[in-house]
Write a structure and sequence with these properties.
five-stranded parallel sheet; about 15% strand; globular; alpha/beta; three-stranded antiparallel sheet
């Protein structure tokens, strides 16, 4: 990996649009995205050993164990981050233990990398409203995210079919009200500790207001990170 590579850590509650903003960065900027949630759902879809272990935690909105998640991330970075300049970590780290593990991993194996923390800010009520209108592509290799909410900018072109691969759109198994509340609880439980961890390591947090259409969020993101003109 070359010097100047960046790892962008997206922090934010479920439904804040980490995945949608990541997709924009992938399609518009040619970056790479690692979504630990997508990796978990892939394992469940192919019923791997890991998939069987994490199925219940995911459906009920609880966090998967740090050790399993870190193992997945380590494997992915080893395979996918060899040549790429910019990578988004979407939904990782979610706990201080994961943040420690990532710093260790980057420090020992990818020491030329710079990390940038971006926090997506949104009210809990907005999260619930967004997630009840959210659908994802049922193809576990795609998992593109859509919304049926007017003005979201995420409506599929054809009703309930993925724009990218034409597979059917489905609700995520954890987008139930009980699970959404559980995931919000888990997020808030860990958020302050994670922020303290980054600040105590001298890592800046860039706050982004995401309560607006995705195209505006993306423009704001590029402006805040000095990416305009790329
Ligand atoms: P997401 O797609 O990011 O909303 O994640 C969906 C679910 O996957 C979460 O509710 C957790 O059960 C699990 N998960 C994803 N990333 C992590 C992580 N970094 N640590 C623990 N569990 C995770």
């Amino acid at each position: 990996m070359s010097r100047g590579s960046n790892v962008y850590i997206f922090l934010g509650p479920p439904g804040s649009g980490k995945g949608s903003l990541s997709n924009m960065c992938v399609t518009e900027l040619g970056w790479l995205q690692l979504s630990t949630g997508n990796l978990c759902r892939e394992h469940i879809a192919k019923q791997s050993e890991i998939g069987k272990q994490i199925d219940f935690a995911i459906k009920s909105g609880r966090l998967v164990s740090d050790s399993l998640i870190v193992e997945m991330v380590e494997g992915w970075l080893g395979e996918s981050f060899a040549t790429q300049e910019n990578v988004i970590l979407d939904g990782f780290p979610r706990t201080v233990a994961q943040a420690y593990a990532l710093n260790e991993l980057l420090g020992t194996r990818f020491d030329a990398v710079q990390t940038k923390n971006v926090r997506l800010l949104i009210d809990d009520d907005q999260v619930v409203a967004r997630l009840t209108g959210r659908f994802i592509c049922s193809n576990d290799k795609c998992q593109a995210v859509y919304s049926l909410i007017e003005g979201s900018g995420l409506k599929p072109k054809r009703h309930m079919a993925c724009d990218a691969c034409a597979s059917a759109l489905v609700r995520r198994s954890d987008d139930t009200e009980v699970s959404i509340r559980e995931r919000l609880k888990a997020y808030h439980l860990h958020e302050d500790k994670l922020l303290d961890f980054y600040r105590s390591h001298g890592q800046e947090i860039i706050d982004l207001d995401v309560q607006k259409p995705l195209s505006l969020v993306f423009e704001d993101f590029k402006g805040r990170l000095g990416l305009n003109g790329i």
